[in-house]
Specification:
Rossmann fold, about 350 residues, four-stranded mixed beta sheet, alpha/beta, single chain
């Protein structure tokens, strides 16, 4: 029987994943808080784009609703609800859709940061799955239009990692991973907490740095001072994850311990890390527009996830007596930019 799924959030990641699943024939519904985005998709469809001609298409006749129309879902409840909103929106977004889940239905966190526990407090323990989307880089750059600014992972990098919070490999996790393989590389993981923290570290060294400087991702990676500040951020995040006794995964293809040592002054480790991070000329044809979600939020004048990202790493570090000055500093800078007290500039990190 076809599973009915709803995406709470048709933004960059939710729209990209849900739009692709709809194109593959799945029963997908969207509900989104941006009125213009909803109306554009109703009139013209959802336009998706990537780095290849095959990735450019428009998904027509999508079922998409304003959040004010959610009451109509009572007529046909859902098997799966994907929460694809900002971390700070998780409680209300989950509460919005929870009444319209079937008794055996469950929710999926398709988000940055760590939100499974928050979702479980609304829908109940045992009704939550997590999906980590690693190195995907998608951008909702205009109402009804989403583009991917990084090449597909394919057999070189597993993009989607699907897991249960308790580490079991269940039929629903395997089913979700199978669906996602129609979009890009995917796997079921028994290490969701470790995957989540590793992605948190990956985000923490990229999202706020672009937001604070106003630079694109490749530009921050080419600038030595900015790049090394980002490495320090990641180094602290790795040490906090280790203190939490998590099994960390590679971060941007780099072993966590090597990344930690690079940020602590190990010259050999730093040289190896920088050899991976510095992009080669012409490696990404979309590099001139590649900005992660936090930088996009700053450009759009929206609230960021800085508190749930670098702020969270700093708070957890304090619990273990681990110093996290780089994370605390970048959290302060981005917060002040978000509040209009500063303007983005590379000088903040130099």
């Amino acid at each position: 029987m076809t599973k009915r799924m709803v995406f709470v959030g048709a933004g960059a990641l939710g729209g990209y994943v849900g739009g692709n699943l709809a194109r593959l024939g799945h029963d997908v519904t969207f509900v989104d808080p941006w009125p213009e985005h909803v109306e554009t998709i109703r009139r013209h469809g959802l336009e998706l784009d990537g780095l290849t001609a095959e990735e450019k298409f428009t998904v027509k006749n999508l079922k998409i609703f304003h959040i004010t129309e959610a009451q109509s879902f009572a007529r046909a409840p859902f098997d799966i609800a994907f929460i694809a909103m900002k971390s700070y929106d998780t409680p209300w977004a989950t509460a919005l859709i929870a009444p319209y889940l079937k008794p055996g239905g469950f929710a999926v966190s398709l988000q940055n940061c760590l939100n499974e526990e928050t979702i479980a407090r609304v829908v109940g323990a045992g009704r939550v799955v997590g999906i980590v989307a690693s190195l995907i880089s998608v951008d909702l750059y205009e109402a009804g239009k989403i583009r991917r600014t990084m090449a597909k992972g394919g057999d070189k990098h597993t993009v989607f990692r699907v897991g249960e919070p308790d580490g079991r490999i269940t039929p629903r996790v395997e089913e979700l991973a199978g669906w996602l393989r129609g979009i890009d590389s995917s796997k079921a993981t028994a290490n969701l907490p470790g995957e989540r923290w590793s992605k948190l570290v990956q985000n923490s060294m990229g999202n706020p740095v672009t937001a604070a400087t106003g630079m694109t991702t490749p530009a921050t990676q080419r600038d030595e001072a900015v790049r090394r500040f980002a490495i320090r951020i990641a180094s602290e995040g790795v040490r906090v994850g280790q203190a939490l006794d998590l099994r960390l995964e590679k971060i941007r293809g780099i072993e966590p311990e090597k990344l930690a040592r690079a940020g602590e002054g190990d010259a050999a480790a730093l040289a190896e890390v920088e050899a991976v991070l510095v992009p080669k000329e012409g490696a990404n044809p979309r590099g001139d527009v590649q900005r992660p979600s936090m930088a996009q939020d700053i450009l759009k004048g929206r609230r960021t996830e800085i508190d749930a990202m670098n702020g969270y790493i700093a708070r957890r570090g304090a619990e273990f007596g681990i110093a996290t000055p780089a994370n605390a500093k970048i959290a302060d800078i981005v917060t002040r930019i978000e509040q209009g007290k500063l303007q983005p500039s590379p000088s903040h990190l130099k």
